[in-house]
């Protein structure tokens, strides 16, 4: 019983009822135009004095409404009303005007249904409640039985006893009719006002492009900031431990900290420039193997880490995209070595068979402190490698952690 009451008189049902009444209000100008067409044809001056002619005017106005629905603003206005009043998910509806013939046809069908069902429910909402109230009041107010339009059988006792029930039943029937029409419109709205296949494809492509940009920004922030923080933390710790015994190492560590933070601030500004709406991207270029491999190794060694590098490929001859992604992969491999405190670290970069091969190996030191949610470095490496069509392997074996990556040199 409670569920039936919500279906007939709940908030959603009331909003859909309002939506139908708005459709009836929109139908009135078309009914007037239909009466102007139907009156001369039927030879009647008083169209609204005849119920059949009223229905005829209503039916004649609906095709006119279908034609006017072809205006571009019809679909945005209707979808806005459906979102606000019918309880339909906004993603299931189109956002802009109809562009294709099929979209315009569906909009015309929807507009005609909205005005048609809305006109019927609006007419019932105007006529049924007064009659139902009169039926419920008949046993109490005897004067209602003497009204000119009152049927002669109202004097029977059994009619007076059942009239309140009949009046209540009429109100429930009106609510059920409005709820049913509103539910039908809500069910048909995604099919008639929903996006076309082209709209869905364009929206999916836009979401995919936005997600790709967000993922790239997340990877860039993780790699540049994460590596810098790891390096600076270890450099500061190493300098603190030998502050009184090795001033030269302390000066070297402080210089490395200054260089690391300055460079990271530039990279961070470049990445955040993409996020600033309307701002131009930062001017700091993305680092590549050709630009900063030696500096990356030097800053890592300044933290007290033993790093051996063997470079058998010419970084300057690498495609810019491959060189940039390879730099980030090497940077993340060194960051993992710094975090895990595994020494020594070996970096090998070479080319064979049209592929750039990167290997980073380090000993398995003490397990690092766990972080909530874990790290994302290896996932970021996998994403970079997958986008370039390469392969990546990472794991521990024989007391050594090994990261091995192959990148095609023809990646674009």
Automatic annotation (TrEMBL):
Every Signal transduction histidine kinase subgroup 3 dimerisation and phosphoacceptor domain range: 214-278
InterPro entries: HATPase_C_sf, HATPase_dom, Sensor_HK_TwoCompSys, Sig_transdc_His_kin_sub3_dim/P
Ranges that cross the membrane: 20-43, 55-73, 109-138, 158-186
Catalytic reactions on record: ATP + protein L-histidine = ADP + protein N-phospho-L-histidine
Database matches in PANTHER family: NITRATE/NITRITE SENSOR PROTEIN NARX-RELATED, NITRATE_NITRITE SENSOR PROTEIN NARQ
Keyword Transferase part of the UniProt annotation: yes
A molecular-function term among this protein's GO annotations: phosphorelay sensor kinase activity
UniProt keyword Methyltransferase present: no
EC number(s) given by UniProt: 2.7.13.3
SUPFAM superfamilies in UniProt: ATPase domain of HSP90 chaperone/DNA topoisomerase II/histidine kinase
Listed GO CC annotations: membrane
The protein's name: histidine kinase
